[in-house]
Amino acid sequence: MVKPENDISEDEVRQEILRSAMHLYMKHGPDKVTMDDVAGATGRSRTSLYYYYKNHSEIYQAVLATMSSDSAERFRKAVKEAPTLEDKINAFFTAKLKTHEEWKAIHKKMSVTLNAEDQSKQAKRMTSLHKELMQQESAVIQQILTDAAKQGEIRPIKPADKDMFAFILSTSIRGIRNEISDLHDSHDITGAVRLLTDIVMKWLER
Fold first, then answer.
1. Between 20 and 30 A from 180 (CA), which of 13, 98, 150, 205?
2. Domain 67-205 coded CATH 1.50.40.10
3. Sign of CA dihedral 174, 176, 179, 180
4. pLDDT tens across 42-85, in order?
5. pLDDT band at 28 (very low <50, low <70, confident <90, very high)
6. Of 160, 167, 176, which Cα lies nearest the Cα of 141?
7. In terms of DSSP H, where are the helices of the chain?
8. How many CB atoms lie within 10 A of CB 5?
């Protein structure tokens, strides 16, 4: 297939397509959006879209992958900007909480117009996306430990322990988030995150 002529790069076109698709998904639900809809939203022909994506399913998967990679990049940026190991751990927790609130809003908008069958499909897709993000989070956390060990801030930690550590951190903050944010528990979320950070640091410094 011949590449459509335009003055912007392929990557910019892809990003424009994904942004338009996301907007449509949030308005109508992903299962109600067609290639024609996405093409119309971008001002392009459906034929030109096939140069960049084979079908609507591929666009949707790319949207989900972008959501995951954007979240991971936010985690890395927050961690990189934090000056100390303790600040990095806390920055990761804080970024994860913020990301959850954004994802929840997106999921709600994308699901509100769906029937029961389509909502079930959407829930499975979001579960798959969650698993991918967990892997991204694990990589960020394990890199924090690797860098801290190289700088002599903590003892070297075995790969298996790093993996378990990352799993515990991700699931712990998700549990706090679910109870306080989703189930409206009265505990202060900032204080809970700070205490969890203190507990984590005690283990790392022992």
1. 205
2. no
3. negative
4. 999 999 999 999 999 899 989 988 888 888 899 999 999 999 99
5. confident
6. 167
7. 10-28, 35-42, 46-52, 56-81, 85-111, 116-150, 159-177, 189-205
8. 6
